[in-house]
Inverse folding.
């Protein structure tokens, strides 16, 4: 019997492989590995944020891998640098899903970097875990997106509630004049109205890259606020606080988590003492910590070789633990579909004193918010 021409044989093999790929072979899963993908700022102004997110996840994955992995598979994280650029984040997502064929996406650093990923997530029906944002656009229900943390609205409600209980009535807010910034203003406005209050003054920065902080300070201080709530990036937040203090303001300065605790404290320096920052995970520093914290500390020290703790890397460590638990629950036959079902089954999952709740109709896993204050030693205290 004559053999088919080589070209026809190669074509038949190619068609077979294509058919196998399209017939539902698991993406990002082999007999020995599970591949996850991440786009993060590993260079540029937000490098420290990207490093913290990546290190927190790697610390937990290393712990799991050192113990033999999950169902015999090691967890591997492919991270591509987006330098905090939205176009690069979108292109990185395409590469991760279409070239690296990862099982799921993990730990993008903001709403602006996460949103370009959503069309690819929908196209490939890929799970998208733990975007590092509390912005409403990423919290509207999406079958494939799972938030591990509280929203900015949750944080802002906590801030207003805390100070209102002490009789504070004069609140001001500083925000960006964009979609997320306006949502932050609306959240504060809503919390104030529920207490028959209204903001005494507002500063809205039109340009994120070059905010007019001086004008903003003048506008806010006209209202003589007792508490100033800041929802801007760490540099704008720091510049505002320093300038307001120089202008004689004695108002309590409070930032939501958007600024990033570690970079904000570093940028403020000695001017940081007394500034309050909302957190969406427990403190990684204090004594008497809940169970997840010593577990995190030991793992991050083993990864980095030094005790370099942060709220951000703890948040990522928690998210990585939830991710691994879902992989374990999905069982040996791990696919995107079984992984999604496992995530939806995680009602009241306790990672060690921090509880995550998912269901088929709820993908916002936590409402935990705590308020911390920067001490004179520039450390965070509850």
């Amino acid at each position: 019997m004559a053999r088919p021409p080589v070209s026809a044989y190669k074509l038949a093999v190619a068609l077979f492989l294509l058919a196998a790929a399209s017939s539902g072979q698991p993406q990002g899963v082999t007999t020995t590995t599970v591949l996850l993908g991440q786009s993060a700022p590993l260079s540029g102004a937000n490098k420290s944020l990207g490093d913290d997110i990546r290190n927190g996840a790697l610390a937990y994955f290393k712990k799991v891998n050192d113990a033999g992995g999950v169902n015999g598979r090691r967890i591997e994280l492919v991270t591509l640098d987006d330098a905090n650029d939205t176009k690069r984040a979108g292109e990185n997502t395409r590469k991760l899903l279409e070239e690296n064929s990862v099982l799921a996406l993990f730990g993008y650093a903001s709403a602006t970097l996460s949103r370009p990923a959503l069309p690819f997530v929908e196209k490939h029906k890929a799970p998208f875990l733990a975007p590092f944002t509390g912005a409403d656009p990423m919290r509207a229900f999406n079958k494939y997106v799972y938030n591990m943390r509280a929203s900015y609205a949750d944080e802002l409600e906590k801030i207003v509630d805390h100070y209102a209980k002490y009789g504070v009535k004069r609140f001001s807010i500083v925000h960006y004049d964009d979609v997320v910034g306006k949502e932050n203003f609306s959240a504060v406005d809503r919390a104030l109205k529920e207490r028959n209050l209204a903001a005494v003054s507002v500063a809205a920065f039109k340009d994120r890259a070059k905010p007019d902080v001086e004008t903003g300070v003048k506008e806010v201080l006209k209202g003589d606020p007792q508490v100033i709530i800041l929802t801007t990036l760490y540099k704008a937040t720091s510049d505002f606080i320093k300038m307001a203090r120089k202008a004689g303001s004695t108002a309590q300065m409070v930032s939501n988590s958007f600024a990033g605790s570690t970079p904000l404290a570093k940028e403020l320096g000695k001017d940081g003492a007394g500034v309050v920052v909302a957190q969406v995970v427990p403190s990684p520093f204090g004594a008497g910590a809940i169970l997840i914290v010593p577990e995190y500390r030991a793992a991050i020290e083993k990864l980095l070789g030094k005790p370099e703790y942060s709220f951000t890397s703890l948040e990522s460590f928690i998210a990585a633990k939830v991710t691994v638990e879902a992989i374990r629950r999905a069982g040996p036959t791990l696919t995107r579909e079984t992984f999604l079902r496992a995530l939806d089954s995680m009602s009241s999952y306790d990672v060690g004193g921090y509880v995550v709740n998912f269901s088929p109709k709820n993908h916002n896993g936590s409402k935990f918010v705590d308020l911390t204050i920067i001490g004179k030693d520039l450390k965070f205290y509850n």
Notes: Residues 152-279 form a domain with the Rossmann fold fold (CATH 3.40.50.2300). The chain has two domains: 33-149+290-367, 152-279. The two ends are 81 Å apart (CA to CA). The chain is about 40% helix and 15% strand.
